[in-house]
Amino acid sequence: MLTLDQATYDAIVAHARRDHPDEACGVVAGPAGSDRPTRFVPMLNAATSPTFYEFDPGELLRLYQEMDARDEEPVVIYHSHTATEAYPSRTDVDLAQEPSAHYVLVSTRDGAHRGDDPLQTRSYRIVDGAVTEEDVRVVAAPDAAAGE
Amino acid sequence: MAIEVKVPTILRTYTDGEKVVSGSGDTLAEVLDDLEARHPGIRQRVVDGDELRRFVNVYVNDEDVRFTGGLGTGVSDGDAVVILPAVAGG
Question: Is residue A141 very low, low, confident or very high in pLDDT (cuts 50, 70, 90)?
């Protein structure tokens, strides 16, 4: 189960809508070991592509240095699919290298990037090539998530 | 002094969970060979043949080695090497 606060969820969806038809990507960092995603960090998709994403290598280094300094880890790694469902592609599975992260996928296909319709947002663990879907719960405030 | 190498979570199975290990050598390739001697298996997760793997980033003193000579990038005592898997997908 992944618990996201409403503001973080909205920020991920807004990023996916904004970058459509290219894929959007980023992380939500949180205190190491807490499993609580608290700090939304949108990243540049260096591939600028509708079918691929890759964090810019320079930005990636700065992100990890910053997380290290704050004793954080990438609790959520998110990206969008702009023409397919919110399910990890073969490439997503092959390249997943953070076994403790929640991989969040947002689909903006079929015009879902427009308007206020809820987008399909799903979350997975990807470990050693195995994909396990988990529930996503969106709560009103970060405090509500922290209390459980 | 030696060269400090920061190891990403996914490769810490090769370093008994250590986040930072030290290595020696005059080039990045030599440092990776040196690490391999003490942490067998780690090299092939970073290098494929004579090239860095496409989806692994290596930095020497915060510079992406793709722009500084790849595996041939020179290093010296006190330098810091960071290995970071790319965050990428389709």
Answer: confident
Which range of residues forms the domain containing residue B77?
3-85
Q: Considering chain B, what percentage of its residues have pLDDT values greater than 70?
A: 99
Range(s) of the domain holding residue A71: 2-146
Cα B76–chain centre separation? 14
B46 within domain boundaries:
yes
Write the ipTM. 0.93
Residue B18 resides in a domain: yes
Supply the CATH number for residue A109's domain.
Answer: 3.40.140.10
**Cross-chain CB nearest to B89 (options A43, A64, A79):** A79
Distance (Å, whole) CA A45 – CA A54: 5
Is residue B90 in a domain?
A: no
Enumerate the residues of chain B whose CB falls inside 8 A of the CB of residue A85. Answer: none
| pLDDT of res. A110 | 81
Q: Which residues pair with A102 in a beta bridge?
A: A76
pLDDT score for A142? 65
Average pLDDT estimate for A50-67: 97
- Concatenating the DSSP letter of every residue in B9-46 gives GGGGGGTTT-SEEEE--SBHHHHHHHHHHHSTTSHHHH
Domain count, chain B: 1
Q: Which of A53, A90, A99 sits opposite B88 (nearest CB)?
A: A53
Under 8 Å between Cβ of A40 and A26: yes
Overall pTM surpassing 0.90 (yes/no): yes
In chain B, % helix, strand, coil (3-state, to 5) comes to 30, 30, 40
